[in-house]
Amino acid sequence: MAMMTRIAVLIPAYNEVRSIGQVIAALPQSVTEVVVIDNNSTDGTAAEAKKHKAIVVHESRKGYGYACLKGMAFLEQNPPNIVVFLDGDYSDFPEELDKIIAPILSGKVDFSLGARVNSLREKGALTPQQIFGNALACTLMRYLYQSRFSDLGPFRAIRWETLQSLQMKDQTYGWTVEMQLKILRRKLPYAEIPVHYRKRIGVSKVSGTVKGTLFAGYKILKWIGTFYFSGWK
Fold first, then answer.
1. Structural domain tally of the chain?
2. What is the overall mean pLDDT for the chain?
3. What is the mean pLDDT of residues 101-120?
4. What is the 3-state secondary structure (H, E, C) of the chain?
5. Residue 1, domain member (yes or no)
6. Binning pLDDT at 50, 70 and 90, where does residue 210 land?
7. Is residue 43 included in any domain, yes or no?
8. Beta-carbon neighbour count of residue 210 at 10 Å?
9. Does residue 182 fall inside a structural domain?
10. Is 57 left (phi over 0), alpha (psi -120 to 50) or beta?
11. Angstrom distance (rounded) from CA 229 to CA 224
12. How far is C-alpha 163 from the geometric centre of its chain's CA atoms?
């Protein structure tokens, strides 16, 4: 009898008490394990996640990358077959998880990205600076790495073995682009899946502030430029 494919979902969360329950509740039944990484929240996010039967781990160091790395470290105890990342603010549509993992399950790719295409995106869900930054980053990746990526979206799935082999390092805003650059450099098969996207619940910790927007843009462009000249395989 074929073994069941174990699918773990990692949800970094900082002060998402209003949304985290909705995110967990909307996940499809194909998910085996839900891990919320509480990134030093002060609003009861952890308690709300536990109420919805999620496993909660804590990361006191602020940063999206720190939270993702903590989630990966937790999964090492009992590794899944596929890891899915999505945000805890209910901007992603968790119910679309099955179509994101489908190309991996079929054996066609190692990595699958949910692309927040304009036709499926709620008006105002991305700020003008996010749209510009995404377009600039993807254009640079196309010219430097022959990339077909059109987005740096947070909703993504990857084989566990592949994720481990990437040796992820970024601790803050460069996490998503680091993963995609390493996929490109190693010429691993990937797919982009158009997904819906809506306005988040609450205020963004990145695009909601000038400092966050500028620092995120800097980190992303730095990764694209410096990685191009590195010897990492």
1. 1
2. 91
3. 97
4. CCCCCCEEEEEEECCCCCCHHHHHHCCCCCCCEEEEEECCCCCCHHHHHHHCCCEEEECCCCCHHHHHHHHHHHHCCCCCCEEEECCCCCCCCHHHHHHHHHHHHCCCCCEEEEECCHHHECCCCCCHHHHHHHHHHHHHHHHHHCCCCCCCCCCEEEEHHHHHHCCCCCCCCCHHHHHHHHHHHCCCCEEEEECCECCCCCCCCCCCCHHHHHHHHHHHHHHHHHHHCCCCC
5. no
6. low
7. yes
8. 9
9. yes
10. beta
11. 9
12. 12
Residue 35 placed within a domain:
yes
Look at residues 116, 119, 118 and name the one whose alpha carbon lies nearest to residue 176. 116
Q: Tens digit of pLDDT for each residue in 127-167?
A: 888 898 889 999 999 999 999 999 999 999 999 999 999 99
Contact 207, 129 (CB under 8 A): yes
Question: Which residue segment(s) compose the domain that 66 sits in?
Answer: 7-228
Q: Calculate Rg over the CA atoms of the chain.
A: 17
Query: Could you tell me the CATH number of the domain that includes residue 176?
Result: 3.90.550.10
Q: Which two tokens stand for residue 185?
A: 């450099």
